[in-house]
Amino acid sequence: MARRPIIAGNWKMNLDHLEAIGLVQRLVYHLEPRDYEATEIVVVPPFTSLRSIQTLIQGDRLDIGLGAQQCSEEESGAFTGEVSPAMLSRLDVGYVLCGHSERRTLFGETDELVNRKVRAVFAHGMLPILCVGESAEQRDAGEAEAIVTGQVLACLEEVSAEQAASMVIAYEPVWAIGTGRTATSGDADGMCATVRSVVAGRYEQSVADRLRVQYGGSVKPGNAAELLRQPDIDGALVGGASLDADDFAVICRYHRTR
Ligand code: PGA
Question: In whole angstroms, what separates CA 64 from the centre of its chain?
């Protein structure tokens, strides 16, 4: 079964809601129906832009998916500053990033907490994009595979086979995020294959065959084609280059060059 590639643009803490609208408008100007058919395209703006982008997507009937950068693992209540999964699903958010390395390193998110967020996202009818990846020190110590395997297994606790098959896992080596350093296409593909085999072992092969595994970390127009043509890479999680409509469109249109 062919897996449909998914390209998601993680805007991080950039752009106000007016700039966000402008970026999506410029992006869709470049895209044609065959692009949306070939590839699932998702934008992941900050919370403050979700409503504006939802309205734009609905009003113009855009075939663009909406993602959130994180969410609370709690249902509701006295959690000042947090945003619940129910609030996101009401805004037609389809995907939520869980365990991005910046959340793990800057905000202390552990695998256990990420797992709770993954389950909360599923409970509200959305799909997690679970981010995993090793640091430079871990890679240099030869621990990359063990670290990524451990993250995948811990974050899939109490996740059903059907849920696992429907979600996305993004392999993002921490040393490649925002640094301009990309993993070689072979290394990236190898680790994405490892993620898939871990999922096959935890569930069964048919689950792993359906799972989409993205690569993330300094994906740019110049290296996207080489990465995206690898057999175990089913798309990209794009940070910096997703803030430029021209660059992000080139990455989304990669299939045209295949
Ligand atoms: P980058 O970010 O493309 O700017 O390296 C990727 C990410 O953090 O998802």
Answer: 14
In the numeric block, the tokens 């410029």 are attached to 26
Least confident of 146-150, 180-184, 192-196, 225-229: 180-184
Annotation marks residue 30 as catalytic: no
How do the domains of the chain map onto residue ranges? 6-257
The DSSP string of 140-171 is: HTT-HHHHHHHHHHHHTTT--HHHHHHSEEEE
Contact indicator for 8, 216 with CB cutoff of 8 Å? no
Annotated catalytic residue 172:
yes
Using a 10 angstrom Cβ sphere, with 0-12 exposed, 13-18 middle and 19 or more buried, the burial of residue 105 is: exposed
- Given a contact cutoff of 8 angstroms between Cβ atoms, the answer to whether 255 and 38 are in contact is yes
- d(C-alpha 95, C-alpha 88), whole Å: 9
Residues in the chain: 258
CA torsion, ordered 159, 36, 230, 187, to nearest 10 deg: -60
User: Rounded CA gap, 199 and 164, in Å?
Assistant: 8
**Residue 132 Cβ < 6 Å to ligand 1:** no
* Residue partners of 253: CB distance under 8 A and separation at least 6: 30, 31, 35
The residue whose CA has the least distance to atom 3 of ligand 1 is 239
Tell me the percentage of the chain whose pLDDT exceeds 90.
95
Quote the mean pLDDT of the chain: 96
Residue nearest to atom 2 of ligand 1 (CA): 239
- CATH code linked to domain 6-257: 3.20.20.70
Provide the CA 15 distance to its chain's centre, in angstroms: 19
pTM for the structure as a whole: 0.97
